[in-house]
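Weekly structure sync, notes
Attendees: PL (lead), two postdocs, one rotation student
Agenda item 3: pending single-chain targets
PL asked that the sequence for the first pending target be pasted directly into the notes so everyone works from the same version. It is reproduced below exactly as submitted, 331 residues in total.
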Amino acid sequence: MANTFYNRSIRKLTVAFGNLFDNITLVRYNPDLTESERFIIPITYANKELYVQRLEADYDLDKKVQITLPRFSYEMTGFTYDPSRKQNTNIRNFSQTTTGTVGQYNPVPYNFDFNLYLYVRNIEDASQVIEHVLSYFTPDYTVKINMIPEMGIIKEVPIVLNSTNQDIKYEGGRDSDTRMIIWTLNFTVKGFIFGPVSQTNVITHSITNVYNMITDSDQILFTMNPAGNGTYLRDEVVYQGYSLATATATAKVVVWKYNNLTLKNIKGHFVSTMPIIGTQTHSNYSFTSYNMVTQRLAKIDITPSVSTMNASNWTANTFITETANTLGANY
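Predicted structure, written out during the meeting:
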């Protein structure tokens, strides 16, 4: 954690949230419903208490250009980890830049809590603005944010409206018409925190081996004790126990070669202290060890076809080599 990096993830989420409300127009009407005036409501990043103090210092709102209403302010109140959106943090994304190939691991999901405050002088202004805002949230609204430009990572970030609350503040006497209406809207921004972007190398040579899948019915190779007798036959049924009818384990012979016995269709558990007996040849050997039999079915060799390859644009030569069946004709 000694390396310094700053992706501005929190700043970008904060700016994106504020930009949603930075161009809202309020229209005021005459008694005959003709338009009287219209203007864009300003918005600032600040907490509610700051604006309340400024408004209460001029509750008649007659000072020159101290603060005007209506007005928006917003603030981030906290954030929490969101395990429901967790991704595999071992997966790394790559991108080609002018300086080479860069990589970055998957981000960590966090829910960011924001409060949006609307300050107005009268209820009609508040109703118009709140109706405008609520119509876009059902209850979420998704925005695209260019989180990591050098990686080309653009995230669709849902912004969820959680609650709304109205607070009416009066100043002066009971008969005074000076008041301030404050609407508080609480949102959750489902964002991400990104780690460092680091230089990385491109894999230029890949070899993949494909083996047969091992299951309970596949083959096992037994290394037999030479102190036995007989020659097992292919497809011969073998067993351990006093007889085939009372056997503790049975199987079918695949290959018998150089004191190595390969069996398939194994049922029960063969033990090294008892002989494996053939039902046809009456061959009789115990075993010293065993291993699951695997066979490489194919080899896939991939190399780039040009020396100027990069992480986003390349072609490759692919060579596939198939392996002959060496486990017996009945495999």
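Discussion points:
- The chain has three domains: 9-80+109-189, 204-218+293-331, 220-286.
- The mean pLDDT is 84.
Action: rotation student to compare against the earlier draft before next sync.
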